[in-house]
Amino acid sequence: MNKEDYIGRVVYSKAGRDSGRFFLIINVIDHNFVNIADGDLRKIENPKKKKLKHLSILEECSYEIRGKLLNEEYVNNATVRKFLENRDVNKEV
Fold first, then answer.
1. Of 34, 47, 49, 84, which has the maximum CB count within 10 A?
2. Are strands 55-61 and 9-13 parallel, antiparallel or unpaired?
3. Predicted local confidence at residue 26, as pLDDT
4. Nearest Cα residue to 7 out of 72, 66, 60
5. Contact criterion met (CB below 8 Å) for 47 and 26
6. What is the 3-state secondary structure (H, E, C) of the chain?
7. Which pLDDT score, from 0 to 100, does residue 53 have?
8. Distance between CA atoms of 18 and 21, rounded to whole angstroms?
9. Which residues of the chain have pLDDT under 50?
10. pTM above 0.90, yes or no
């Protein structure tokens, strides 16, 4: 997978204090590490550095947020939070 393909993807944390939560990949540091945020506990301004082996990468992607991140436009935390909340509701149904 290309570095840009990871940005905006929904991931599920499998390990650590934040295990069991959903996040979006904000940035790819290298082939082992990414920065993740959920807009709630982990803000866009202060993303969590996480190893890829501690994450389950899902097929879902927010193309709107991904486009903004790739174009270095501002993404607010509410947008990320709402996307992840809507995703959780859709999964339970």
1. 34
2. antiparallel
3. 96
4. 66
5. yes
6. CCHHHHCCEEEEECCCCCCCCEEEEEEECCCCEEEEECCCCCCCCCCEEEEHHHEEEEEEECHHHHHHHHCCCCCCHHHHHHHHHHHHHHHHC
7. 96
8. 6
9. 89, 92-93
10. no
Place of tokens 């990949």: 25
In sequence order, what are the residues at sequence separation of 6 or more whose Cβ sits closer than 8 angstroms to the Cβ of residue 83?
24, 62, 65
Q: Which residue's structure tokens are 């945020």?
A: 37
Token representation of residue 3:
């570095």
**Residue found by looking up tokens 């940005």 in the block:** 7
State residue 93's pLDDT score.
Answer: 38
How many degrees, rounded to 5, is the angle at CA 44 between CA 43 and CA 47? 75
Tokens of 41: 């506990």
Here the tokens at position 86 are 């809507």
Count the residues in the chain: 93
Q: Domain spanning 3-92 has what CATH number?
A: 2.30.30.30
